[in-house]
Amino acid sequence: MAATEKIVILDFGGQYNQLIARRVRELGVYCEILNYAAPMAEWADAALKGVILTGGPNSVYGENAPRLGTEIFRLGVPVLGICYGMQLINDLLGGTVESAEVGEYGHTLLTTEDAPLFEGVGRETVVFMNHNDRVSRPPQGFTVDAYTANCPVAAFSNAEKGVYGVQFHPEVRHSVEGVQMLRNFALKICGCAGDYRAEDMIGRMIEDVRARVGDGRVVAGLSGGVDSSVACALANRALGPDRLTCVFVDHGLLRKDEAKQVLETYRSHLGLNVVHVDASERFLDALKGVTEPEQKRKIIGALFVRVFEEEARRIGADYLLQGTIYPDRIESGMGGSATIKSHHNVGGLPKDSLFKKDHIIEPLSLLFKDEVRAVGEGLGIPREMVWRQPFPGPGLAVRVIGEITREKLEALRACDAIYLEELKRAGLSDQIWQSFAVLTGVRTVGCMGDDRTYGWCVALRAVTSDDAMTVEAAELPYPVLKRCVSRIIGEVPGVNRVVYDITGKPPGTIEWE
Ligand code: XMP
After folding, report:
1. I need a labelling partner for 329 at 20 to 30 A (CA). Which of 9, 297, 388, 497 fits?
2. Is 169 a catalytic residue?
3. Given this model, what pLDDT does residue 357 score?
4. What is the pLDDT of residue 336?
């Protein structure tokens, strides 16, 4: 997928790098996050309009600090350093960095000067700081453009050379006017047109799939989620149903009636060639006795690939299409940050896989979720499908805590269906990013009628978010929660307690496992 103009974000391991990319794309500018060591020859092409150097956990004077050469300043495009990126610029150009006596974390009042990066920004504005080190002496020829109580050089620039640095994080929402600063950089300083729209890339993405596959045949994993649906619909446009077989694997870990709904919708609405493989026995057997979350994911991921391979052999396909999106790659540790959970569709292929590495087609791997949805709508996929809540590849396996059994799955499905039905009835579904029930694995004592019960404790979760990277627990109305509790305990045998999870992300994650 090539854009006519782009900004490259060089990743030094900062926590908010994905947010930088999101903000830049929201401004209508295509951008990519690359490892800081990616060879310049691979990305410094005619489309390049600017470079952003991200934050990171290191100190520029640290032994293994990631560094760049000064050729970055000779590319002829503006460079913006954020946090560590600013300190690196400073060091490369002969300034000094010091460890501040008092670090700055969180909301901080910034005073700005008249400077290109701060056009349209208040003289005083709140920004998000997260640093120990700071610039003590800027390089020669640089002006100081902003300061805070504890950071005398909170932003600097050499406009003539096109080099800018900020100590704070404009990409984080807490930086109240951060978007305006990024807009100034991307549109005014770099001169980008700001006309990138993911849906305008559909034609090119279709061409890319055609070019990659040649006259080969493709098997695709279709889960019913937004990502795989959009990937399949796109590939179907590129290849047609004769060369694209979508495999819907029922791993026995789906929600109530899910298989039926997915098959109906995809066959009739999208005209996809869908094969339904009921592999529930195999999956549940392989998961017998397994309690550790990562092990569950690995088993499921590996078995998924085996099932796809069997289908591929059957139909003579040697390409595998997946709905991997940009955050999956980044969250799986592609950008140098810690791996929290291994998503099965990234890096889950065994070494002896039938599918060669260059035969894995991931047409959405550079898109964010909202962009995938825009592409989905552009492809004519019905709205209710495009706006479906995300559902994890390992399905209910990561929502049954501890060992998975058929009885637990059945109880969880029933609880989940009641919960979703009540949220829908209360008109709350549209405001929620994800909502689901979890079978906690904890059994508790209760009393029903005059009898003692010893049953499962179920947790309900509902979160709001716009990217799944950070979430808040939804503040559901008490009466709705109470109705769910009484219906679940009354209607689902074996469950005698219901709790509501109000943990955000961080410190939690959306799924319990
Ligand atoms: P967490 O739990 O990490 O989830 O906050 C972030 C988003 O990813 C979904 N999720 C997965 N999706 N395979 C997937 O395809 C997985 O292994 C997986 N684990 C979590 C989760 O539902 C949420 O939308």
Report:
1. 388
2. yes
3. 85
4. 47
Domains in the chain: ranges and CATH:
6-189 (3.40.50.880), 198-386 (3.40.50.620), 399-501 (3.30.300.10)
Using the CB atoms, write b or e for 469-489: b if 16+ within 10 Å. Answer: bebebbebeeebbebbbebbb
Strands (E), 85-210: 96-112, 124-137, 143-148, 151-158, 163-166
Burial 362-374 (b: 16+ CB within 10 A, else e): bbbbbbbbebbbb
Ranges of the chain with pLDDT below 50: 335-337, 344, 346
343 is catalytic: no
The reported pLDDT for the residue numbered 103 is: 82
Q: What single-letter DSSP state applies at residue 433?
A: S
How far is the C-alpha of 334 from the C-alpha of 482, rounded, in Å? 42
pLDDT tens digits, 27-45: 999 999 999 999 999 999 9
39: how many CB neighbours lie within 10 A of its CB?
9
The pLDDT tens digits for 120-158 are 999 999 999 988 889 999 999 999 999 999 999 999 999
pLDDT at 341: 61
Q: Ligand 1 within 6 A of 343 CB?
A: yes
Q: Which residues pair with 99 in a beta bridge?
A: 133
Distance CA 124, CA 108 (A): 10
CA distance 260 to 258: 5
Whole-number Å distance between alpha carbons of 231 and 321: 8
Of ligand 1's listed atoms, the one at least distance from the Cα of 341 is: 3
Q: Which two tokens stand for residue 407?
A: 């009885």
Q: What is the pLDDT of residues 156-202, one digit of tens each?
A: 999 999 999 999 999 998 899 999 999 999 999 999 999 999 998 89
Answer yes or no: 151 catalytic. no
pTM summary value: 0.79
Q: Which residue in 171, 177, 362, 511 is the catalytic one?
A: 171
393 lines ligand 1 (CB under 6 A): yes
